[in-house]
Amino acid sequence: MHATIHRFRRWPDEDAGTWARDLLAGVGGDGQDEACVLGRLDGADGALLVLWRSAADAAGARVPDPGFLSGGGSYEVVERVPGSAAGSVPGFAQVLWFPGGDAGRTDAAVRAGRERIAPAARPVAGVVATWVLRGDDDALVVVTLVTALPVLEDIRRAVFATDLLPWEDPALVADPERVDVDRVLHARLAEGARS
Length: 195
Fold this sequence. Notes:
Blueprint: E1 2-9, H1 16-25, E2 32-40, E3 45-52, H2 55-59, E4 69-82, E5 92-98, H3 103-121, E6 127-135, E7 140-146, H4 150-160, E8 178-188
Antiparallel strand pairs: 1-3, 1-4, 2-3, 2-8, 4-6, 5-7, 5-8, 6-7
């Protein structure tokens, strides 16, 4: 499974639900799966994120140009974890952007996510889903969809309460270079939840 992310510069105004729905409806190509349009709470930008069944489907994607999209990126979906609120309509998302260039660090982060972080976050009420995306340059993007903003703090507390696993090297534990907290302007999810 693969993902595409197209950044955009547009303030999420009162018409955001309409233009976000239209933007998502205009995405063309075979093999589309889940998708969402996110608008940052603290800025005039956001992202169109679409999951695709294969790399070929992602490469053949047709994305409309409403005049405010900027560059896009392609990623492999390495984890797709339903949360305790799978099937619910997500209201917010947190997007963690980790730098690339170090395959070992990225491998360790993915493994820690699978073995330590996901089990800690799984029982947190209000988590709809988490997608872990890996770029060709070993950059990592972690997208967590939640039903309400306070859920993000609940996740943080649950994860920070864990101890590193015996195999984890503290030198390889990296902070994200950027953290976006977004409003979900529109979503199309596999469990049928739509916003």
